Amino acid sequence: MELANGTYAWLVTGYRQAREVLADPRFSNVPPQRAGRPKPDSPAERARACLARHMLNSDAPDHTRLRRLATAAFAPRRVDALRPRIERLAAGLTADLAARLEREGTADLVDAFAFPLPVLVIGEVLGVPEADRADLREWTYRVGSPADALAPGAVDEAWSALHSYFTALIAEKRRAPGDDLFSALVHDTDEGGLDDAELLAMAFLLLFAGYETTMNLLASASLLLLTHPGERAAALHGGPGRWAAVVEETLRHASPLEGTTWRRTTEPVDLGGGAALPAGASVLVALAAANRDPEHFPEPDAFRPDRHLPGGERPAPHAAFGHGPHFCPGARLARLEATIALPLLFDTFPGLSLAADPAELPYRPGLLVRGPREVPVKA
Ligand code: HEM
């Protein structure tokens, strides 16, 4: 495919090929050196450059070391222990949403629920004190906004503010660790523990890998349930297994990350079927396409949670969390959040309906993330 900058890249769309590429060490995650690029000289540029140094942009053995630490911090028991806190955060947002609906008649589910919940949960993961969570939410909102949507300089200011805040947070966690997952990373002193620059990159990565994806999962699942009343009724009366199936089917049908991060071939690779890639080829794995590959998912365009239930066709695992060495370490946390938030939302507002034509809803621009920009609802 041709990219906007006039260069070419390979798009991998089949399920089998997607998994092959993601598990093959001949596809590197390290971005090519951009020769002649000026050194970052403003706080905002330094923050962006720091985000670029994270583990998704690395290969073994660097990646293996960073990944081992992240996997330990995201151990199932640590993630599961977040349940009561996530329930409390989701309940607080639901109460705010109820008040807003009462006051204004309509509300945007993305703004009121799907965006703030993952950001607040990352606040828990990073051990951000409650008093600072509103700032974290605001800075995250700003850095995720197009530069022309805010006052001049606002996006850069938010990047700098996040950079300073995370730098101070790391110093504080070194001094006085909390029971959060990030403190576990800061204090992992096993061979190859993280230095301050790596911790900073990790904090940025956790924020950006964790909030936008989960926001899209919550927004897309809500939209799918609002437009599939039969599935919504089945979920409301079907118990936890049915909600888990709704989440899996949303991940497959509306993959929050449409594509992985870029890969580059380190040598020529023949993927079969006429796809002979030269060394140095840029490659994007289209997770959304792989998840609708008809050879693996019958009726791929239909939203059918029952396919994941006992008695359903029990398809191959979807690829929404990737595959291979970079498989998402936050998958368990994202599933936990969604299976708490969605039943709470739809139980609390049994009459919730869309306040806009679903065909007219704007989607986020860009090649990698996918989700509705707004989901206006009325109670
Ligand atoms: C990596 C999807 C939530 C942290 C990935 C990858 C995918 C993905 C596809 C691999 C990308 C690639 O190979 O280029 C998702 C989806 C989510 C989600 C769909 C929500 C629905 C989260 C959460 C966190 C997280 C909640 C943590 C708070 C990460 C990290 C990586 C990653 C750190 C890099 C792993 C590595 O390089 O080894 N995610 N993610 N993700 N994700 Fe997630």
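qc> Residues 55-56, 67, 70, 122, 125, 205-206, 209-210, 213-214, 217, 256-257, 260-261, 287, 320-322, 326, 328-330, 333-334 surround protoporphyrin IX containing FE (CB under 6 Å).
qc> done
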